[in-house]
């Protein structure tokens, strides 16, 4: 681990130099919100944001991604043969990603990088990307990262963590990728101000006003929790709009569809959502989760129970609070987590009795 001090007057100069070796992405203001996007030549990431409306997961896992292409023209020798669509796997860097979003990539990686199946589309993008994090000194009231296995200065998933020191940035280089990016940017002014990071971390964590408890989730019986009496109440107001899943940095569900125009076809990978009524419809027409309550229960059971039991890596949530802020009917994962974590089988028996 190396600390580097970057004068703010040389920050833009460094990013311009790094742009010769990396394609740069960062938060950009669009109307009333910030979104992660490719930075145009000379464009700087906007650090006046608290967090983006959508997570940067689309940089590794696009909302729609062409995988294969083919021709149905039988006059061609290669008709009906699937060919991989060319992809850009050149080095790139995400500047200003929040620690919670960086941690989420490691949770998503558990799905796309398994001993049996490795998704080349996600993994190629992940391996090509350097993650330059910006410490979060002003968490929102809906943030609960410190009790979701993360934090405003969390380092997992990052190659470099940057904190604002007023007239300068202090960068903690965490990996070889981080070292390579610092070299490309010309950031070589060493610093020994480790105490600044410790002080900033303590202050940021002290500003957190929201929390969850997850200590009982692992030990709770899965089937009894599945049959808990509170699911109808939680699901009552849900619109099945999918806002929670699309804004979530750890949701990984997708569908694969073919799009054909004339004799040309493309096989696409598209985001999907367990909140959508047709998500589980079988080819027979049967839908094993045909009610709103079943779909809402699936979402929270997946994040707060199934994931916990399967991976033993904590909950499938980093506490960014996006779903809390953006749900149009105010369904709050913190409340759901409290109900699930405090649930006892006797609670169900009392209701049934």
Structure, described:
The chain has 353 residues and is of the alpha/beta class. It has two domains: 2-206, no CATH class; 222-347, no CATH class. It has twelve helices and eleven strands. A seven-stranded mixed β-sheet has the order 1-9-8-7-6-2-3, sandwiched between helices. Strand 2 (23-30) and strand 3 (33-38) form a beta hairpin. Helix 1 (8-18) crosses helix 4 (176-185).
Shape call: globular
The ordered string of helix (H) and strand (E) elements is: EHEEEEEHHEEEHHHHHEEHHHH
The number of domains: 2
Largest β sheet strand count, sense and barrel closure: 7 strands, mixed
Runs in which pLDDT lies below 50 for 5 or more consecutive residues are none
Instruction: Give the tally of β-strands.
Output: 11
Mean pLDDT metric = 94
Helix content: 25-40%
Q: What's the end-to-end separation, in Å?
A: 59 Å
Count helical runs.
12
Largest sheet, order of strands side by side?
Answer: 1-9-8-7-6-2-3
CA-atom Rg in angstroms: 22 Å
**Strand portion:** 15-25%
Features:
seven-stranded mixed beta sheet; 353 residues; globular; alpha/beta; 12 helices; four-stranded antiparallel beta sheet
